[in-house]
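I'm stuck. Please check this protein.
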Amino acid sequence: MDKKASRLPSWAMWAMMVVLMVLTIHVVIESAVQLYFANQSGAWKYLSEFREKARQAGLSLSQYGQKVGLDPYLGWGREEARQHEPPPTVAKSGTVLFVGDSVTAGHDVRAGEEDYPSLLAAQWGKRGVKVVNLAARGYGVDQMWLKLLLQAGGYHPDAIVFAYIPHDLIRPGNDFNFGLPKPRFRFPGPHTSLTLAEEIGEYHRHYDAARSGFHLSGWFAGHYWDNKEYYAPALATDYFARLYRHIGEGLAQISQEWKIPVIVVKLTNFREFSGSEPLIRLAASGLVNPKHLDKADVRYLDMDDCVLAKAKARGLELEKEFAHHPSPPGHRLLAECLGDFMEPIVLKAIFDK
């Protein structure tokens, strides 16, 4: 009896040591996350900014989200359309619709005047062509596609320009960008599913609960795992290949059903990311017309060669004009190159109706 009794404290001691070790590791990791990592992360920065804006507006997080146009299908950018009508003296002949991110939206230049869709609108408007710009800051190719699905039909376009920079190719691998939840396509088995953007107030509540409950490290671990395609795109080429093919199928169906051309454009940009080259190649093939839709007209344009040639002829430094968002001269180069490519396509689509 004495020997058995003496063994119990030994087992209990080992168990206590294991528990204490696990707790110590958790406290050390969690303290590092709480005190340093979380405060340095982009997630906390954007969440704090959103809270402050909601506070200044005197609204709850959910109310402020509704005010700024957050949407479960798009994330944001629901009401950012810019329309360029032809001059009053010119009869309208057709409509060209653009979708893209902040470059196409005209950030860091005078939006509506100096961005490349506006420059093309000024040129084409003389021929009666209306230009509609649905671009929104921070969009990936997934949100561009969803916005086309939800809004393009209301404008009855005669041609669509689907424009992206390389960084837009990895954004679909994330369900959170610029402090705002966004939708995500997933591919469980042979199927395609769409996870809608989480309601902004609920998103903040989950984060706050993790921070106050001292398990924020688990929240970050879950976030990075759920969005591993974004953080390790080189290891997720199968995911992105399926996504681009899915969008490409949709673009081709729009082209065939509406009998209009769709131009997929890779804009010149110097914002690089790890694993960009494989995704650029996958997008160049996946976003273009699938073979079985023989009446679809989906074309691909890589702007780099044209922009490089025109910039060299004018003595412009590409890295300066396209350092982040294009400068006004950069937008002029984009407008000229895209205009040269689209001129016969747009006019044929509009005037041969």
